Automatic annotation (TrEMBL):
It comes from Spiribacter aquaticus. GO terms for cellular component: membrane. InterPro entries: Endo/exonu/phosph_ase_sf, Endo/exonuclease/phosphatase, GPI-anchor_lipid_remodeler. It holds the Pfam family Exo_endo_phos. The lineage of its organism: Bacteria, Pseudomonadati, Pseudomonadota, Gammaproteobacteria, Chromatiales. One of its GO terms (molecular function) is catalytic activity. This is EEP domain-containing protein. Residues 1-229 form the Endonuclease/exonuclease/phosphatase domain. GO terms for biological process: GPI anchor biosynthetic process.
C-alpha cells in the first residue's frame, strides 16, 4: 500500500484546506481517532509506504506517527525519513511499515530548488536475491520531479527486483513517469484509477511501480477517505529467488546519501 495520510488530518471538502488549515500547525483532538482508523485500514497489508507523517511535534501532540501506526497496526518493523525538521513546530516525514526486517536502509536527499524532498530506500534480502523498495513524495514542480526521478533512475538502474511507490504528484502518462519507466523498465499496471482528492477523486498522482520480475495480481484504490488522498494497493507475487526467510535480524544503520 501507498498512502499519503496528510499528518492524520481527515479532509472531506476543498474549503477545509482554508477553514481547518490550522490543523497543519496546531494539535487537534480529532487527529488521534483518525490515526486509529488509518491503522485499521493498513493492518492487513505486508508493506505500507506512508507519506506526510509527523515524527513528533506540536501539531501531532508530540506523537511519532510512524511509531504509533506501526504499534497500533501490529507492524514489527518501521523505517522513517524526516525530510523537513522544523523543531517543535513540525517534523515532516515519510515512513515504511513492514512485516519483515530490512537488510539495509538508506536515506537520500532529492535534488530541487526547494529542499525537503527525499527518498527512503529499504532493501530486503534472502539468501539468493534482493528486493529494493523506494518510498517517495515528489515535488510540485514538473522540472524538479524530472530531476528527482532522474536521480532515482540512476540509483535503481541495476536492480532486478524493485518497487517504487508514493505520492509522485504527477499522473501516469506524465513525461516524468514515462521517463522513469523508459530508463528503468518499471511498469505500472492498471494505473489510471484516481486517488486525489479523496472526496471526489479526479487525479491519479499516487503510484506503485514494479520491475517486470514481480507478477502483479491486483491493483485497487481503497474507498477510505481518511486523508485528502485515497490509499493505493497492489498484490504482488515474488519470484522464487525472493521467497524464503529474510536474512536480516533487524534494522541496519541508516546511511545518508547526497542527492
Amino acid at each position: 500500500m501507498s498512502f499519503n495520510i496528510q499528518a492524520g488530518i481527515e479532509t472531506r471538502y476543498y474549503h477545509q484546506y482554508f477553514t481547518r488549515g490550522w490543523r497543519h500547525v496546531l494539535p487537534d483532538t480529532a487527529r488521534m481517532p483518525n490515526l486509529r482508523r488509518i491503522a485499521e485500514t493498513i493492518r492487513g497489508f505486508d508493506l505500507v509506504g506512508l507519506q506526510e507523517l509527523d515524527a513528533g511535534s506540536l501539531r501531532s501532540g508530540f506523537v511519532d506517527q510512524t511509531a504509533f501506526l506501526a504499534e497500533t497496526a501490529a507492524f514489527p518493523h518501521r523505517y522513517i525519513q524526516t525530510n523537513r525538521p522544523l523543531g517543535r513546530l513540525a517534523q515532516h516525514s515519510n515512513g515504511l511499515l513492514a512485516r519483515c526486517p530490512a537488510t539495509t536502509v538508506s536515506e537520500h536527499r532529492l535534488p530541487g530548488r526547494i529542499p525537503g524532498r527525499g527518498a527512503l530506500m529499504v532493501r530486503f534480502s534472502t539468501a539468493r536475491d534482493d528486493l529494493l523498495v523506494v518510498l517517495l513524495h515528489l515535488a510540485l514542480s514538473q522540472r524538479a520531479r524530472l530531476n528527482q526521478l532522474a536521480y532515482i533512475a540512476e540509483c535503481i538502474a541495476d536492480e532486478s527486483h524493485a518497487i517504487v511507490m508514493g505520492d509522485l504528484n504527477c499522473h501516469s502518462s506524465s513525461p516524468e513517469l514515462r521517463y522513469l519507466c523508459a530508463e528503468t523498465g518499471l511498469r505500472e499496471p492498471a494505473s489510471t484509477e484516481p486517488t486525489y482528492p479523496s472526496w471526489r477523486p479526479a487525479r491519479n498522482i499516487d503510484h506503485i511501480l514494479v520491475t517486470p520480475s514481480l507478477a502483479v495480481e491486483a491493483v485497487e484504490v481503497l474507498d477510505a477517505p481518511l486523508s485528502d488522498h485515497l490509499p493505493m494497493t497492489m498484490t504482488v507475487s515474488l519470484p522464487a529467488s525472493l521467497q524464503g526467510p529474510i536474512q536480516a535480524a533487524g534494522r541496519a544503520p541508516t546511511i545518508p546519501s547526497e542527492g
